[in-house]
Specification:
The structure is a single chain. The protein contains one helix and nine strands. The mean pLDDT is 88. It is mainly beta. It has an eight-stranded antiparallel barrel. It is elongated. A hairpin with a 4-residue loop joins β2 and β3.
Length: 206
């Protein structure tokens, strides 16, 4: 698995070397699950950070590749009497989107496939109990890296605006096409990654 990730990254990096523009990006990821088994999950805030490169096919259309470290997952919150339990699934992926990019007068649109490699999975539970004026919180964390499939396939679609000085802002939707779970309590059930991203970027031309 690690060797496959390295091969893919090196291949993307080789393509980035010849790209006409390259840069960095980071931002917020608002993430959850969709599917028949995802009804109880809410969105949770997370993050994404990485590098990008764009090669123009002409003045309007180009291909943009990215290597992103992205936190995904969702949360379930329940309250009973004076006890609130928040259970969040936190899945950290290496996202590798390859996007068709249309750019004109600073405005850009992007769409394309994405492959994601699971790096780490955790189930984090926080139980908060209130008794009078006293509040106590107990946090537990379980490693679930072996439960999801190690590779996820999906797509990305977004738009944004890039200034002449290279700074840009983008909004993107990421949808998973494959069930997340290989083992665990959701094995065989329909759960797909879904997220909205708001990012800031800086690119330079070569």
């Amino acid at each position: 698995m690690k060797n496959l990730i390295l091969v893919v990254i090196f291949a993307l990096m080789a393509g980035m070397v010849s790209a006409q523009s390259a840069g960095i990006k980071a931002g917020l990821n608002y993430t959850s699950f969709t599917g028949d088994a995802a009804g109880n999950f809410d969105y949770r805030p997370a993050y994404t950070i990485g590098v990008l490169a764009r090669t123009g096919l002409n003045d309007l259309i180009g291909v943009q590749t990215e290597v992103l470290y992205t936190s995904k997952g969702g949360k379930i919150e329940t309250t009973q009497n004076s006890t609130t339990t928040e259970s969040s699934t936190r899945l950290n992926y290496l996202d590798l989107p390859v996007l068709l990019s249309v750019q004109t007068n600073g405005l850009f649109f992007e769409l394309g496939p994405q492959v994601s490699f699971l790096l780490k999975g955790r189930q984090v539970s926080e139980v908060t109990t209130t008794s009078g004026s006293r509040t106590t919180t107990t946090k537990t964390e379980v490693d679930i890296t072996d439960d999801p499939y190690p590779i996820d396939f999906g797509y990305a679609a977004g738009l944004g605006y890039r200034l002449a000085n290279g700074f840009g802002i983008g909004f993107r939707y990421n949808g998973g096409l494959k069930n997340v779970d290989d083992e665990g309590s959701y094995e065989g059930k329909s759960r797909h990654n879904t997220s909205f991203q708001l990012t800031l970027s800086y690119t330079t031309s070569r």
